[in-house]
């Protein structure tokens, strides 16, 4: 893209605090950007920064011409309003897909978000790459987080799956998961999903935690396809982030019309 128009896609990352996992994720994203020629800028703020200071950084990145995508590394310290900060990101630079306009359009029939959350898009991409049929299938999503569970369930419905969501207050969750043709789990509890939760031949697409939610040794005896952790959906999620950044840059320069 830089060769064609003289400008590289740009990502601005906001990192608050000293969480080792957050810093690790940011390093991975920054390296991935470098590998494909995307410029990335990381703005670091101390753990005790004010909400106003974070919003000032968001505003500055919103107005930077060479920053096409903005990513706020989550989670944020508890004294900061995640909702207020994510809402402040320019929807046209919301490459994480968490802005309420993007989530709202994802939920509505006949509308499309500017950006789809990366982990959710990654799950669908893995299913497509392996030829797993989604239309008309029973899909169970374990977890309803704003980052993965909720948007994944919405995206699956756009692909005409029959979706059930299992959460903390669900009674007899294993009875529901045993009906699933496809199972997506993102609860962050290692080995929570046991082999007897699955029906034979189920497809399991796990979340991006270091240790998977699904007991791999038991699930592999029943599943027709299972994504491992580490690996699996995680690297695809990073690829979807890169895709969103490039799409944001293309919209900025109206490059799609010339390509």
Automatic annotation (TrEMBL):
Broadest EC class assigned to this enzyme: hydrolase
One Gene Ontology biological process: tetrahydrofolate interconversion
Single GO MF annotation: methylenetetrahydrofolate dehydrogenase (NADP+) activity
Keyword Heme: no
GO cellular component: cytosol
Entry EC no(s): 3.5.4.9
InterPro entries: Aminoacid_DH-like_N_sf (IPR046346), NAD(P)-bd_dom_sf (IPR036291), THF_DH/CycHdrlase (IPR000672), THF_DH/CycHdrlase_cat_dom (IPR020630), THF_DH/CycHdrlase_NAD-bd_dom (IPR020631)
Quaternary context: Homodimer.
Pfam families listed in its UniProt record: THF_DHG_CYH (PF00763), THF_DHG_CYH_C (PF02882)
Gene3D superfamilies: Leucine Dehydrogenase, chain A, domain 1 (3.40.50.10860), NAD(P)-binding Rossmann-like Domain (3.40.50.720)
Stretches assigned to the Tetrahydrofolate dehydrogenase/cyclohydrolase NAD(P)-binding domain: 117-252
Domain Tetrahydrofolate dehydrogenase/cyclohydrolase catalytic: 6-96
Protein name as it appears in the record: methenyltetrahydrofolate cyclohydrolase
Keywords attached to this entry: Hydrolase, Multifunctional enzyme, One-carbon metabolism, Oxidoreductase
